[in-house]
Amino acid sequence: MPLLRSVSGLRATLGDSLTPDVVASYAAAFSTMLADGPIVVGRDGRPSGQWMEDVLVGTLRSCGRTVERLGMVPTPTVQLLVEHGDAVGGISITASHNPSPWNGLKFIDATGVFLDAQANSRLWQIVDASLFAYSAEQQAGHVINVTDAVERHLRAVLPPTSMSVRLTRPLRVVVDTVNASASFIVPEALRRLGLDVVELHCSGSGIFPHVPEPITENLTELAEAVRRERADLGVAVDPDGDRLVLFDEHGNPIGEELTIALAVRSVLSSGKVGPVVINYSTTRTVEDIAATYGCVTHRTPVGEINVVRKMQETNAVIGGEGSGGVIDPAVHYGRDAIVGIARIVDLLLREDTSLSNIVRSLPSYSMVKTKFDIPSTLNMTVLQDELIRTFTDAHITTDDGIRISWSDRWVQCRTSNTEPIIRIIAEAPSRPLAEELITQIRSVAGV
User: Fold this and answer.
1) 96 has catalytic annotation
2) Over the stretch 428-446, which tens digit does the pLDDT of each residue have?
3) Superfamily for 256-337+344-364?
4) Which of 8, 31, 96, 405 is catalytic?
């Protein structure tokens, strides 16, 4: 499997594309790009992250850097500590939702956000040309073991006083963190919000009990546990703690797309109105919700940094991605499951009703997501031209693959940032209409 490089960082499979030499090269190159100062390092809990952390720390020290080592923490914790601390950058050791044979690196700049396309290109050039160098002096970089990173994250997200005073009864929640980086912070956040927490796969071992991507087919145990425990909701996050997925009190999946929709409703209904930013692949439910509060919605290519840059440009009050990522600039500019949990629990408490009732009140669409290996014969430029000629009655954008939209439906065809696949996603008022859009694109693309 080749090394995958994108605005989502670096990912690869262990033992072939991902080796100590590769990790060291990227760490040294990243150090070369940064101003003087410490670098924050955290990992998502995978066992392979331990040796990668050792290589990173040793390499950065050999570059004369001070390393603030957080150990196993969510990626948004690394981002938050960079944004609100004295570090000049950060590295999160993670392959996000990819299976256990994978790991990778996410690079964070001095403002706490991921490297954008230009900065990533510069990083790759430094690595490819071996333009990095180690310290010629005594290589005196040292390590600071940060033990309160999770506490600092919780204090930044949660209100000074627990919201539990507004509860007529404790809400019960079942939590699945796939034994990874959010194993301790998510249950603790929910307890501080006044909820009764049932932990499912929250050991922190880094051993995934199921396929780690937080989508419905991988979360059957969580659904069963919600029903068995008579819980009010279920919460699932991915290995690095930036994606949040919910189940209602009946054990029914809410769907990762509605995480950002619920967070947007929570923020806007609290009286904090302003622009909203999402990516091209995110449900139009968000646009409908924003419109009811007189707020404009902006769209960007997929990739957290793309959403963040547009949020900064428009002074957005909330943003995120339909993969379950919520970005609240009042806390920090990064997708953060803890932020999503706090905002959605606040919505539940203010509306004083069940999660299923809130979801039923949202605008309803059906989304179909498909993915295929990229055919060797596929030329995206040729495909875009053909689709533009085919769909003459639609609004078309080509910022991220090609997205074809009408007033009540859309379809997008794009190559993945994180896997060697092509994705076709469609959304329409009904599933048959969405599937028909998929069929039309597949026919033209030959996949």
Assistant:
1) yes
2) 999 999 999 999 998 887 7
3) Alpha-D-Glucose-1,6-Bisphosphate, subunit A, domain 3 (3.40.120.10)
4) 96
